[in-house]
Amino acid sequence: MKEDVVIFNEEELGLTEAICKLCTEEDELDKRIDIRYIRKYSPEDILSEREERVYRQQSLIGKYKGTLIVIRVNYPGTNKNNYISFGILKEISALIIAVFKNFILYKNFEITAEGPIVTMVLNESCNNAKNKTVEIEENHLLGRCVDIDVYDENGNSLSRRELGISERKCYLCCSPAQNCVRSRKHSIDEIENFMRLKYQQFCDLSIL
What we know:
Elements: E1 6-9, H1 15-22, H2 26-37, H3 43-64, E2 67-73, H4 83-99, E3 104-112, E4 115-122, H5 126-139, E5 146-151, H6 177-183, H7 188-207
Antiparallel strand pairs: 1-3, 2-4, 2-5, 3-4
């Protein structure tokens, strides 16, 4: 196991509880992340972590023979571990756990160069899982801040197009999201500001 990846196994600490321990007040959370977990990451670290994540995903699918869900926060740049990304992941992962609570075979929370990541394996059809996660992406206030990827038991990523669902739109300009990602149309500051605003809106509504 790499030293810069922190893993909370379900047997050691419940997934939601693990995230909650990291999602307190902004200043306190940033302090705990800086001291206890996070080092500086480079773009190369993120690419390397992505490759290792794919390997881990394939191993899980091979072991459980189920539908795999991976939840990541779309936080830009290399500083992907912060109170916003942890807070967003906490909310969305708790919601998905509630939706699939009777079908979860495995769940895990990691802090990586790609940011905080939740992985689950379900005893549920990949089509049903994809439809339900797309509904969250489209309708939850924080849904546009996350990628919820769904893989079938052969390790193939299920796309929206395969289910006849329209592609994701950019949350800044409403163009196809993939086009904006590839062309780097928007600055890191623009994206960070959007995510900060959305998370603040969510927190304000939660207080009411």
